[in-house]
Design a protein that fits this description.
Layout: H1 2-18, H2 37-45, H3 62-75, H4 80-87, H5 96-109, H6 113-116, H7 122-140, H8 143-152, H9 156-161, H10 166-186, H11 192-195
Helix pairs in contact: 1-2, 3-4, 7-8
Length: 196
């Protein structure tokens, strides 16, 4: 049965690891990425290190696009369109109706959307404060340190973990983070502008 197969694979991998084989030397091939979900869950519960590779372009992942939007805005806070996009990022838990009302309010008052956020709910005011804080963090920490803050503080990582297709999103996030680490390693002064 498929369940027995997964447990057999788990036992084999554990045996390899106990025999001293490096996790980087172990590979499990699947015809389709969707077939990995149950085995990944099993590996997570067993605390076995793993990485799922796929031919997917991580920049096409909707969850990564949300992070990129946040990064773009932090690089250029005058970008009203990107701020509107950020307000609709589901992981930030801003009610969509409120985001639209704030946008209309900014337009009718002829003020910047950023300024209109002061009129929002406590959650919107929290976001406004955090955006300013993250802008400062991006300027004062390495990109790796900053990115860790960015995926944790706004609840992005917890949101991803609660999704039914979390494995796919986690793989994209991991690949994106690995790329940031490589760039930051080759250039320790990597800036937000260079990242986006």
């Amino acid at each position: 049965s498929p369940s027995e197969e997964r447990h057999f694979i788990l036992r084999q991998v554990k045996n390899f690891l106990q025999a001293g084989t490096s996790p980087a030397e172990i590979a499990i091939l699947f015809r389709n990425n969707r077939d990995t979900d149950e085995l990944v869950e099993l590996f997570l519960r067993s605390q076995i290190p793993f990485r799922v590779f796929s031919g997917k372009n991580i920049l096409e992942d909707k969850s990564i696009q949300k992070l990129l939007g946040l990064l773009r805005w932090l690089n250029d806070p005058s970008d009203e369109r990107t701020l509107f996009f950020i307000l609709h990022a589901d992981f930030l838990e801003i009610p969509h109706l409120e985001a639209l009302q704030l946008t209309r309010s900014a337009s009718s008052q002829r003020i910047k959307l950023w300024d209109a956020l002061e009129q929002g709910s406590e959650r919107v005011k929290w976001l406004r404060s955090k955006l300013a804080e993250w802008k400062s963090t991006a300027m004062n920490k390495t990109m790796v340190e900053f990115f860790e803050v960015l995926i944790n503080e706004p609840g992005y990582l917890n949101f991803i973990l609660a999704q039914p297709d979390k494995i796919e999103h986690l793989n994209s996030l991991n690949s994106f983070f690995d790329q940031i680490k490589q760039w930051n390693k080759s250039k320790s002064t990597l800036t937000l502008g260079e990242l986006v």
